[in-house]
């Protein structure tokens, strides 16, 4: 069976009632078994859980070979330019802080594969009780421009390390505001970036505006 | 029952034969259960596992209230200056890269609590197969000066972030060489650090050398 990202979202919410389920992480080694109570672990395993869920529900997909870049799942294995799904998760009691992509890889890839801008982000807001009981408080289906926001200096929010601006990070205000990645702004720090942005803007300007579903 | 760090190490190795055990991390949410295959998760849960192991074996301890600083376990709850145990774990197929402590907290704490230098580090070198089977390849019991090493500029290996020198990290050559934290060397970057180092050296010089078990 093939489903779109939206159909998967609807099934999780309405059929499976995912926000009413309970879960747990267990670790055993030899005779000793423990309930894992580390909240940040959940963020890393929701993608693996969705693998299991898709399998359990006989929903077709091709997994991604590049774990560094979106998407995690090609929901149409015959056409890897449509119906792309990326899974993210964050502790609902805190602030979303997940990486969206390596910035340089991302800005380079959207030149060649502009359909990557259409990846659907399935975002889980989870909770873990002090006893280690995992629940899903919220689920969102968003586009990348709905989960990033402007920083003061840059058009998208980025974490920067010592020597490089490396990651696009999510929007702390995922529920509050929408913004769009503006290419051609002052984050164009070097010639490569600038050239890629110019190419991108050219392509964007020459594209069929009917394809743009930005409201 | 009370055991020393060395007795715990011996029991794990010789009685429990920990290096022959197999383990697994499982996560379920609703009807979907998966085997977690993320190697870095193991590093974070070996401390929780040791909690369970100590409980299963009726070994006394008081857990630490400050997760930022060593030790994880006070093995003599009546005297929190002796028999201190800290747990670390790293992927044995890679390079050890765990944090030992926040550097500024650590250098400040050893002034007031010089016995903290005697904390025993129980270090697990784990492996996870592609199927998610966890095994423990090696276990070490080390002092802090046995798991740090000199960097070119500093007497101990440190990770430094954008604005601060913040973490003492482990020795990539845990098996190869021994080195000692030398206080009074060029990592004395500001007055606080320098003053603390002077106090520390004064104390060290005035202490009973019979207490020092450094070979």
What features would you describe in this structure?
2 copies of one chain form a homodimer. Chain A has 215 residues and is of the alpha+beta class. Helices cover 26% and strands 25% of the residues of chain A. Chain A has one domain: ECO RV Endonuclease, Chain A. The longest helix of chain A is centred in the N-terminal third of the chain and has 18 residues. Chain A is globular. At the A-B interface, strand 1, strand 2 and helix 2 of A face strand 1, strand 2 and helix 2 of B. Strand 1 of chain A pairs antiparallel with strand 1 of chain B.
Helix content, binned percent of chain A: 25-40%
Gap from first CA to last CA of chain A: 31 Å
Radius of gyration of chain A: 19 Å
What is the residue-mean pLDDT of chain A, rounded to a whole number?
76
Number of discrete domains of chain A: 1
Largest interface: A-B, 34 and 34 residues
Order of adjacent strands in the largest pleated sheet of chain A: 3-4-5-7-8
Secondary structure category of chain A: alpha+beta
Give the count of helical stretches of chain A.
4
Oligomeric assembly: homodimer
* Pattern of helices and strands of chain A: HEEHEEEEHEEEEH
CATH A-level architecture of chain A: 3-Layer(aba) Sandwich
CATH topology of chain A: ECO RV Endonuclease, Chain A
What is the general shape of chain A?
Answer: globular
What profile does the largest beta sheet of chain A have?
A: 5 strands, mixed
């Amino acid at each position: 069976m093939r489903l779109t990202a939206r159909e998967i979202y609807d099934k999780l919410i309405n059929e499976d009632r995912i926000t009413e389920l309970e879960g747990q992480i267990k670790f055993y080694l030899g005779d000793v078994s423990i309930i894992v109570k580390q909240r940040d672990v959940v963020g890393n395993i929701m993608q693996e859980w969705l693998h299991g869920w898709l399998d359990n529900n006989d929903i077709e997909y091709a997994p991604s070979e590049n774990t560094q870049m979106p998407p995690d799942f090609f929901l149409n294995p015959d056409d890897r330019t449509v119906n792309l799904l990326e899974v993210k998760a964050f502790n609902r009691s805190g602030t979303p802080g997940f990486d969206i992509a390596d910035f340089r890889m991302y800005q380079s890839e959207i030149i060649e594969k502009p359909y990557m801008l259409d990846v659907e982000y399935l975002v889980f807001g989870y909770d873990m009780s002090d006893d280690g009981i995992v629940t899903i408080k919220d689920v969102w289906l968003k586009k990348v421009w709905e989960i990033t926001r402007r920083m003061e200096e840059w058009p998208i929010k980025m974490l920067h390390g010592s020597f490089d601006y490396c990651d696009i990070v999510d929007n702390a205000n995922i529920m509050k505001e929408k913004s769009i990645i503006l290419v051609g702004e002052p984050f164009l720090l070097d010639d490569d970036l600038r050239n890629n942005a110019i190419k991108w803007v050219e392509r964007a300007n020459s594209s069929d505006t009917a394809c743009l579903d930005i409201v």
